[in-house]
Design the sequence.
């Protein structure tokens, strides 16, 4: 057993089933430190490339201004070319009249860690708007509930990375009182806020929210205020 006055060498415990490294002592020798840095870097690179590969393989539905399907295109290409495609946005509210909003995961290719509506994504070929909304709500937030469509509209939002969201967006609403079980690959955090609080916070801190949420929320807020939408 080494004494406190002696130099302490570090041991690395490698579990083959998880590839997790655990530090047994308090100091790292140079070789062990370099290995740990390399493996961490390699894991991040592989994960990033797989994420973008999946995104490139995922098709979006190209539409005209009347929402008539005119073709399919890989998601990344559609965003690079700013072509109009079909999308949806889901708003979940509870009995208190609060809206569930989510903070996007930090590795998202655009708008990471910004706050936005409960969930949003793109319909798959042959999938209805409601089917798509329910699917993505389960994938991102981990729960299911009934949805109904409120309205649709077209918007265009360019990003600093050269990509552009140009969507015919179908806005849906649903009701839920429990806590979500968020998917950390998609969502960093979540919270309930009253629509009036969101509206005020957007005015004072617009940089906290996604570009499309600021556009969509304004229309959503006016809609529920004007029509007192039943959930």
Sequence:
């Amino acid at each position: 057993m080494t004494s406190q006055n002696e130099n302490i060498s570090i041991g690395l415990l490698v579990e083959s089933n998880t590839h997790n490294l655990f530090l047994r002592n308090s100091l790292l020798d140079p070789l062990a430190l370099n290995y740990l840095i390399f493996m961490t870097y390699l894991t991040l690179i592989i994960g990033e490339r797989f994420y973008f590969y999946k995104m490139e393989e995922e098709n979006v539905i190209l539409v005209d201004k009347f929402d008539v399907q005119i073709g399919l295109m890989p998601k990344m290409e559609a965003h690079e070319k700013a072509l109009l495609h079909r999308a949806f946005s889901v708003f979940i509210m509870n009995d208190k009249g609060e809206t569930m909003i989510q903070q996007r995961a930090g590795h998202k290719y655009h708008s990471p860690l910004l706050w936005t509506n409960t969930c949003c994504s793109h319909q798959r070929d042959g999938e209805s708007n409601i089917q798509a909304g329910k699917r993505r709500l389960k994938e991102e937030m981990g729960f299911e509930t009934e949805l109904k469509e409120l309205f649709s509209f077209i918007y265009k939002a360019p990003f600093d990375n050269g990509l552009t969201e140009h969507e015919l967006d179908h806005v849906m609403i649903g009701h839920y009182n429990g806590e979500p079980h968020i998917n950390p690959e998609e969502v960093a955090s979540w919270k309930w806020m009253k629509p009036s609080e969101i509206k005020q916070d957007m005015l004072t801190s617009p940089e906290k929210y996604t570009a499309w949420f600021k556009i969509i929320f304004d229309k959503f807020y006016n809609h529920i205020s004007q029509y007192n939408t039943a959930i």
